[in-house]
Amino acid sequence: MPDIIAETQRLILRTIDEYDAALQDGHLNTPTVMAHLGGVKELHEIEAKHAKSMALQAREGFSFLMLIEKASGELVGHAGIKRVDNPNAPNQGDHEIGWLVREDRWRRGYAHEAMIAVIEWAFGRVGAPHVVAITNPPNIGSWKLMEKLGMERREDLDFVDQEPLIQYSLTKAQWERAR
């Protein structure tokens, strides 16, 4: 049974369970949603990522979560915390936050709402001293949300992995001042 990590006005953020790969494949794994995340994935790739998230949750007490819309009970996104694990990143091991939202729920503020809850979780129960978020320069929606959350651009953390990737960061002190 998945655990509820946080609730917002419109969302339940819960841990991933073994049945969620097919759910994610059906609702989130579309060419448009996955355009800036390496493209549509095979089901076995989603299953592997979910297994990694479940192991991280068991080991460290954080992971990526499923975003369930309270009004409908439907999966509308995926968001959470993981460790920076790209071998090309200069800050491996940092707490990385991220999200994706189902295309038919875009421009409703779900990503912003979910990420406020994730950042509170990161700086609260997880105890992260800072968080980072990674995207590619053309993903304007993502880096605009990073800026809206109070994150600052960190060119010193940029790296290349098949394409240029940029990072934003946010310290606990910056978050507390912004709140």
Automatic annotation (TrEMBL):
Keywords: Transferase. One of its GO terms (molecular function) is acyltransferase activity, transferring groups other than amino-acyl groups. InterPro entries: Acyl_CoA_acyltransferase, GNAT_dom, N-acetyltransferase. The keyword Transferase applies. Gene3D superfamilies: 3.40.630.30. Residues 28-173 form the N-acetyltransferase domain. PANTHER family: GNAT FAMILY, PUTATIVE (AFU_ORTHOLOGUE AFUA_3G00765)-RELATED-RELATED, N-ACETYLTRANSFERASE DOMAIN-CONTAINING PROTEIN. This is Acetyltransferase.
